[in-house]
Amino acid sequence: MYAEARTLYERSGFGGRVGFGKRPAIVVIDMARSWLDDASPQGSSGLLPVLENTVKLIDVARAAGHPVFFSTMAFEKSDVAGPYGRKMLHLSQLGSLDAGSSMVELDPRLNRRADEPLLVKPRASVFWGTPFDSYLVGGGIDTLIITGCSTSGCVRATAESAHNVNLHTIVVREAVGDRSPLAHEVNLTDIDLRYADVMSLEDVSSYLKETPAQ
Amino acid sequence: MYAEARTLYERSGFGGRVGFGKRPAIVVIDMARSWLDDASPQGSSGLLPVLENTVKLIDVARAAGHPVFFSTMAFEKSDVAGPYGRKMLHLSQLGSLDAGSSMVELDPRLNRRADEPLLVKPRASVFWGTPFDSYLVGGGIDTLIITGCSTSGCVRATAESAHNVNLHTIVVREAVGDRSPLAHEVNLTDIDLRYADVMSLEDVSSYLKETPAQ
Amino acid sequence: MYAEARTLYERSGFGGRVGFGKRPAIVVIDMARSWLDDASPQGSSGLLPVLENTVKLIDVARAAGHPVFFSTMAFEKSDVAGPYGRKMLHLSQLGSLDAGSSMVELDPRLNRRADEPLLVKPRASVFWGTPFDSYLVGGGIDTLIITGCSTSGCVRATAESAHNVNLHTIVVREAVGDRSPLAHEVNLTDIDLRYADVMSLEDVSSYLKETPAQ
Amino acid sequence: MYAEARTLYERSGFGGRVGFGKRPAIVVIDMARSWLDDASPQGSSGLLPVLENTVKLIDVARAAGHPVFFSTMAFEKSDVAGPYGRKMLHLSQLGSLDAGSSMVELDPRLNRRADEPLLVKPRASVFWGTPFDSYLVGGGIDTLIITGCSTSGCVRATAESAHNVNLHTIVVREAVGDRSPLAHEVNLTDIDLRYADVMSLEDVSSYLKETPAQ
């Protein structure tokens, strides 16, 4: 239903292919209980396939020796006192991401290793308000592969940030999701036109297997 | 058609109202010929009402003594050599925003004054790669009112950045636009749910008139 | 001994006075055991007067209703794997700021309150890799008063960052310090010429008392 | 005269060697007339050897195929209205870096090529308020070699920023300078202890010659 937008944008010169680079890393956005568990005000168990596909992809990455990063969010009361908390009522009123709560912990199926950094990000993009760029530069990363949720929020914002610094930015279609299927689809199109190549799990897995670790 | 997304997001606690603060500024995003002129590969004269409504609003702001900022974009060949230029073919191949071209100049109807800063921004958000935040902090601004184009690109990215730093962020419905009406509508909804209050030209004009200048 | 530098810089137009603004906040840089305790490889009990003067100042600020922020640093092994850790051997080899260690905790004499944010900063400036700017914008802060250590490192870097965004930046002479008295003196001069007004504890205390809370 | 500081800092674990990486770039900071010409209020012809050594180094870099970047500064009146301009009186009152003036142009002996980006930076660090990081990431750069002026200002600030993002950061002793020889010496020491390896022109030239271009 969003084909009109794609047509108009491609005609204007958006939507080129950035392609893969030579040194990839994966970032898994916000695969914590607060987003995956229906008991959370913002949670949706409909995202479980996203988790499963993410697990498949990071297993491939680990086997091939590519770095994996994770993010979550967690807030104290004083962190959500201003306009940010007024827009995000789940944070400021519903306590869905309270620091110290089990809701902000990564899903155990991700099996995070001690040498895989966890970024506690204060905003949608994992680059904003964190030292994430320093890990990428320090590791010589030129390709950022994004999985997790939500497509219309933290995934899109992270893809924009990665694109801004000239990373080859890839979003894995089957490994990102959104509580709204409609928001998922239109934002995936915007992402593909503006910020990142949206690619299949299969193609990204093949690339990770074929690419030598540093 | 995007009502599903709104319903699901509001149920999850998104979409609170940030409201107005006490010290507003307006930023006019990319109202230059390259976006407004059909002769440009990325241009659309369908955006002329956006320009007209922006002019109305900045006239109100000037009369009330509130600061006005403008942005445009302009690139040398070496600026678009990497993944950024590979995604944005209008920049790297079509030359739609070449530095020095008349296409990157602000529309003369905006009548920019010498004391109104012009930010030449390298990416979608006017905050990214520019000193824009220093003008806002230096001016004691707590409310950023956004007009211009495109809703699905630079307007949304700027709203996200402003929200990130806890500005009261307001997007003026009749004074923003997009080459795709569909992209305009869905992104306006995402913006309203996540980053900024989307408000009418009339309500924002009233606020600007009633609010004392510093 | 650094008078030559001051003379040459003032003759060139550096060293103007920024003065106080209307809405101050205090940030206390790195007054944790790792910096204050001789048992730490980077610690110096010579900084205790800095702590005592900081406590005096934040008591004044609290009584007057002005916000107070704190910083510390803490690292996992994976955080110091690149060039950053190669330069900072106390972090990467001596473990002086290991996450979870009591060494990274704020000195209890600061008596931090639950509504006073603690920034765990990854680099010298408290603005870098943290959401610190969002607290200042959200609180309408226009004046940042800096105390803590080290003058030649985190204090100077924070003063530079605050100056960059057009905050009225003030460094409190008796409430900042350095493990090297010489580094303290020359950096205090550089700070005063380039980034912030260096002022006395007495003058800053008077200002805080006289300035109405928001 | 600053040996005390070095001793105390090295004993605390500062001053490790970061060494060279594999993909270098050079950034030449502010070698424009306003800094090099005694006719400018902030200028000093004493910096001419810095220019000459910079020219030698960039000739080596060009011959070896390594990228070269340049910076300058330039301001409109509205850019220096707040605390930044109040500290920097040469900018706000003496007009030493007025946009459009010949004073802000690079020295012609640098012979900048069309494909060598020029960053017009608004603050001391070339990373701040510019898209500089996107050029480095897009070019796969892991080593930043810094030349130009002033050691106690823009050189130090740029070294700190580069260190923050985990670049191998190198400052070339004979190719950086300061209007104050004393400020030069103490800041070079601080830089070496905290942010970058300070190395000789000869050693850096050898490295550039021996390192294959990408």
Task: Describe what this molecule looks like in 3D.
The structure is a homotetramer of 214-residue chains. Chain A has helices at residues 3-11, 33-36, 48-64, 83-87, 89-92, 132-138, 151-164, 181-194, 201-210; strands spanning 24-29, 68-72, 118-120, 143-149, 168-177, 197-199. Chain A is 39% helix and 16% strand. A 6-stranded parallel β-sheet of chain A has the order 3-2-1-4-5-6, with helices on both faces. The interface between A and D is medium-sized, with 13 and 13 residues.
Ends distance of chain A:
42 Å
Query: What is the tally of helical segments of chain A?
Result: 9
> Overall mean pLDDT score of chain A?
97
**Sequence of secondary-structure elements of chain A:** HEHHEHHEHEHEHEH
CATH superfamily of chain A: Isochorismatase-like
Q: C-alpha Rg of chain A, in Å?
A: 17 Å
* DSSP E strands of chain A, number: 6
| Low-pLDDT regions of chain A | none
